[in-house]
Design brief:
By secondary structure, the chain is mainly α. The chain has six helices and no strands. It has helices at about 5-10, 25-45, 55-75, 80-140, 145-165, 170-200.
């Protein structure tokens, strides 16, 4: 054996960068929770809806950025569900912030308020369906994750319907109801991210109420990381 072969054999192989599945989820969920809460506060009239422009910078600089970073970590860890969730909603926050901040006035000038409302309401209803699709996977994780998706879908539904309707008392009620649903959803997301972040330090003292399916040690579907029972 040559000297080169001896040196190669004695040099340990460099370990591949393989982050643990789930480390990107708390980052993404925290960012999403902040953005959803700000939007919920505006729709629920906790602060004046005239300040809805406050949502765009929060969605851009914190929500979308945190979800993007979290999603990349999740995909790198081979967690398809976590990565897809984070990156998809990073796109939602980025595109919705762009619509509300930069493109809404021009669209309203061309299509009118009702035309913009129909388009924006359809956009939200599409996300309602998409969120319900993801909730099927969240059901197999834990209670806060599942509730976060279901509440988000309900918020999309209420706000989407309100956007497609003519302005009136019913629209006001649906918008406020959707806002309060988003506030509850944001708090649920915060709890989920909080528990995932601090439980490794305090010994799983914040309950996540995993469903019975989480006792399975290996995922039956290739590419989806199993969820550890807590």
């Amino acid at each position: 054996m040559s000297t080169t072969d001896d040196a190669a054999a004695s040099t340990p192989a460099q370990a591949a960068f393989e982050p643990q599945a789930g480390i990107g989820v708390p980052i993404g969920v925290f960012g999403f929770g902040f953005a959803v809460l700000v939007l919920g506060f505006a729709d629920a009239r906790v602060f004046t809806p005239n300040a809805i422009g406050f949502f765009a910078p929060v969605a851009f600089s914190f929500g979308a950025l945190m979800l993007l970073l979290g999603g990349l970590f999740e995909l790198r860890a081979n967690n398809i569900f976590g990565g897809t969730f984070c990156l998809a909603y990073a796109g939602f926050l980025l595109s919705t912030g762009l619509i509300l901040r930069f493109f809404a006035p021009a669209i309203i000038d061309l299509a009118g308020d009702n035309g913009f409302g129909d388009a924006f309401g359809t956009w939200l209803l599409m996300w309602c369906v998409f969120t319900l699709m993801l909730s099927v996977g969240a059901y197999r994780i834990n209670m806060p994750a599942f509730l976060a998706f279901v509440l988000l879908a309900l918020g999309y539904l209420l706000l989407g319907i309100a956007s497609t309707m003519a302005v009136g008392d019913t629209t006001e009620f649906l918008t406020k109801a959707g806002g309060w649903v988003l506030i509850i959803d944001g708090i649920t997301a915060w709890y989920l991210a909080w528990a995932l972040t601090v439980n490794p330090l305090i010994g799983d003292r914040l309950p996540l109420w995993p469903y019975p399916y989480t006792w399975v040690e290996k995922s039956e579907t290739p590419g989806i990381a199993p969820t550890p029972a807590r």
